[in-house]
Design goal:
Blueprint: E1 10-12, E2 15-16, H1 29-41, E3 52-53, E4 69-72, H2 85-97, E5 102-107, H3 121-126, E6 130-136, H4 139-152, E7 157-161, E8 177-182, H5 195-206, E9 214-216
Parallel strand pairs: 1-4, 4-5, 5-6, 6-7, 7-8, 8-9
Antiparallel strand pairs: 2-3
Length: 241
């Protein structure tokens, strides 16, 4: 059964590996997991910073019969500069072969989407069951990443405010957004978040004419989820329990 603080039911990693790009990556769980399980996740002796394509994993979603919410590339950034366009096109084709699922891709590199030679963009647009979002950790990263995402993605867009490392205001970008996911940092060396940061984003989502779903994963490293006497579990997609 899905954990209450998860917005997905499956992770799928046909591409693995990544490099740090901002302060939000300092305690990256993917790097931490690579240190423990790298041979299984990434391949024996392959460093985390070397991205790899795993074509043998492309068919995995087709084997999941019941509809799932799939976090695509939880151990990578699908738009990392080392990711080849052919890899993304192959992933898109695999998603097309398993249309019963909802897919979510999060990136810290949305500028790759507006690159003239990034031809898989048209494949991404064809997928009606795909949400594309940016991960931000504070106002500065939101200012840098959200305009790039919204420049090319006109629908089914998501913001992941995790790990939250500073206050955030995203009201002027909410109209085209389908969902905001938020959470404090967890794990070794977790940096604290302020509950007021999450209140501010929640209130922005709630005060729109068309309410934007707000999902709060955790308030702190202890994974407490109750904010103002309730949990916030709103999502634009349905999760089968």
């Amino acid at each position: 059964m899905r954990k209450p603080d998860q917005w997905w039911t499956h992770t799928w990693n046909p591409i693995t590996g990544c490099t740090r790009v901002s302060a939000g990556c300092a305690n990256c769980y993917a790097h931490r997991m690579h240190g423990r399980f790298g041979d299984v996740i990434h391949g024996r002796g392959v460093p985390c910073g070397q991205l790899r394509f795993h074509p043998e994993r492309l068919a995995d979603p087709s084997h999941w019969r019941s509809p799932q919410v799939v976090f695509v590339g939880s151990m990578t950034d699908m738009f990392h500069e080392q990711v080849q366009g052919e890899w993304v096109s192959a992933v898109c084709a695999a998603m097309t072969e398993a249309p019963q699922h909802t897919y979510v891709i999060l990136t810290k590199r949305p500028e790759r989407l507006i690159h003239d030679r990034f031809t898989p963009l048209r494949d991404l647009y064809m997928l009606r069951n795909l949400y594309i979002g940016v991960s931000v950790e504070d106002q500065a990263t939101a200012e840098a990443r959200l305009p790039a995402l919204l420049h090319v993605c006109y629908g089914r867009t998501v913001v992941s405010y995790e790990p939250a490392l500073g206050p955030l205001r995203i009201g002027r970008w909410l109209d085209p957004l389908y969902c905001v996911l938020a959470g404090a940092e967890t794990g070794p060396g977790a940096r604290p978040a302020d509950a007021d940061w999450f209140r501010a984003v929640r209130d922005e989502c709630k005060n729109r004419w068309a309410t934007v779903p707000f999902f709060l994963k955790q308030l702190n490293a202890r994974r407490e989820r109750t904010l103002d006497e309730r949990t916030h579990d709103d999502l634009p997609w349905r999760i089968e329990q």
